[in-house]
Amino acid sequence: MTNTDTAAGRSGVELLPKLNPLQTAWYAMRSAVFYAGYALWTIWFGLTTPLFVKPLGYAACVRYINWWNRGVIVWLRWVCGVRYRVKGMENIPPRPYVVVAKHQSQWETFFLQLPFAPVCTILKKELVEMPVFGWGLATVKPIAIDRSAKREALKQILDDGCLRLAEGISVLIFPEGTRTEIGKVGRYARGGADLAVKGSVPLLPVAHNAGECWPGKKFLKYPGVVTVVIGEPLHGDGTDSRTLMNRAQEWIEAEVQRVSQYR
Question: Is residue 143 part of a domain?
Fold first, then answer.
């Protein structure tokens, strides 16, 4: 598959529900209410975490920030009707490990912090440089990379990632690098597999259909069920990182198609 592949040959927009004007207005109002609450919730945690929780240490910051993550997920369910279910929790191995997940929306950036905590997320450095939001985010040891400097970014992922793994902290990476429309497949970078091989830890693939309820770079939120599937851990055992990532990609993309609400 390539980054232009779509389910049934349609674009991500065409895969979303068709709304009449009244439905569009209703969903827009609910989405606006969600974002208002989300903004206030984020301001609270962005300010209080570095001021009052950071002195208590990393573990306290993780627990506190995860209340922010839970709050976003719960608020989205109450206001916009976005529910979720998780399959494969039994596949989570003992820490540490490297999680590679499909990236369709912001939803998974909040939710995936919860089942794998403590987990360090690899993200673009612009996020931790944001006022308020970035202040809280920086307290949970993310690996903030410059995506324009690919070679340096990969070195940072391997160096800092191995340090986190040595501390018993798992690492979460979205190998497509940026959010992709539903039905599309981005280019899977193999940095996560490189880290798993170098750190001698399992690679844990995660699939979901979150973009069908919270489309990337779109304002409207759609009610529905996000299905998250955690796959069996993949072990290098002498396998090169490219082959390992190809195995993860094939599993993830097949599962994304299987759990889609719009197949």
Answer: yes
Does the pLDDT at position 1 exceed 70?
A: no
Tokens 């690919």 sit at which residue? 150
Domain count, the chain: 1
Which candidate, 123, 199, 128, places its Cα nearest to that of 168? 199
CB 142 within 8 A of CB 122: yes
Contact 65, 47 (CB under 8 A): no
pLDDT in tens, 44-69: 999 999 999 999 999 999 999 999 99
